[in-house]
Amino acid sequence: MNTGNVQREDLGESQASSLNEEVAGSPIQSETQSSRPEVGNVDGNAASRAKLGGDTEFLDSQGAGIGIPVGTPPSEDFVRFTRDVHRIVRDLITPSQRIFFIDFLATTGVAYVATAVYMIANPWGLMQFAAWFISAAALYRASVFIHELEHCSVGSFRTFKYIWNVFFGIPCCMPSFLYDNHVAHHSRNTYGTNGDSEYLSLAHQPRALRALFFASIGLVNPILGPLRFLLATPLALLSSRLNRRVWVRRSSLYMLNPQYRRTFDASAQSITRWTSEIACSVWAWMWVVLIWNEAVPLAVVGKYYFLFASWMVVNQLRTLTAHRYERRGDPSTYGEQFLDSNTFHRGYWAELWAPMSLRYHALHHLIPNLPYHAMGTAHRRLLQCLPADSLYHRTLRPGFLAALRDAFFGAGIPDGKLDSRRSS
């Protein structure tokens, strides 16, 4: 077996290419074939497991244990580990359009029905509280489909993307074009750098203030979204210079990184962008007219704000737990990217704060095209098939609150110490 050449049937083409480049420059490339464990043996031998994680210390710059490896696993070992994972879950890679459509339409239907009940129910009553909770959870879940869309084949999911925009993206002023730059969050050249809009480095002080500021953005997001299309879209239509500024600075759905600037490329002038842009602007201005003419009472506006702010704050907090955020702005290998990500495998309630398998974020960064409906099965297989000291087990976190505490205060616990036998 040639471990220096990753087959395309195992990995995505771009990731396989990058991994092969890493292996080509690795000193392990010169090792003899006899010193390498067979990939067919998932457990590998003791030497292989030592390379996969045993030689990495979990220290920060001051020497305090925070669960982040100082070094990176040898490139070839990470390739071997990735091959093992792909072989275990390769039959789960193909997404089911049927599941996507049924799930999204059912989720959106529940969200809108619950929203209607929330609006007309007696204030502060049990019915209103129940409707608010169901509506917020369903709206949150429906919004996460935008993440799945970025990892699906453009051709086969074009219809689904159109339906998502019509039934959710445009009415909620978060069309899919705002998230088309998500690929940078998976690139080894941009992940954790200023070219990644979805990464907030917490390695710099003041850590707690940076995390608190990001979490509080959820309180203003319900206003910033419509405001962006109310004001920025007309300006973009009036001037090419303003259009470029709007695209570069105000056209990214997640802006964890204040230094990020979106590249003005062909997608900025696409029909899809302008159709969604104008539709959202018209929708937002329609609401302004209705409110101005008192057709929509301010009390209703307040209810909508509270509804959207509730799940958007939860999403901000969830995002703070998705990664360790210990990168300092330099490009990273896929191994570093993977070990900087978290896995939450305990408790069914995780599907509320991390819907659609966002709880398995490390697995998602390892296999970005693995569909959400297969994540749970893939996770359970990996826990069963990989050794307890594997790289995958090192991404396990004890729970949401513990990870949130680490995001604010950096008081993490070493990985590999968790009881990985329990999963849900």
Describe the structure.
The protein is mainly alpha-helical and 424 residues long. It contains 16 helices and two strands. It has a two-stranded parallel ribbon with strand order 1-2.
Q: Helix- and strand-based class? A: mainly alpha
Count of DSSP strands: 2
C-alpha Rg (nearest Å) = 23 Å
Backbone shape: globular
Summary keywords:
16 helices; mainly alpha; 424 residues; two-stranded parallel sheet; globular
Secondary structure topology:
Elements: H1 13-24, H2 46-54, H3 75-89, H4 97-120, H5 126-149, H6 158-169, H7 207-216, H8 221-238, H9 240-250, H10 271-292, H11 298-322, H12 334-339, E1 343-344, H13 350-353, H14 361-366, H15 372-385, E2 396-397, H16 400-409
Parallel strand pairs: 1-2
Helix pairs in contact: 4-5, 4-6, 5-6, 5-11, 7-11, 8-9, 8-10, 11-16
Question: Outline of this structure?
Answer:
This protein has 424 residues and is mainly α. 52% of the residues lie in helices and 1% in strands.
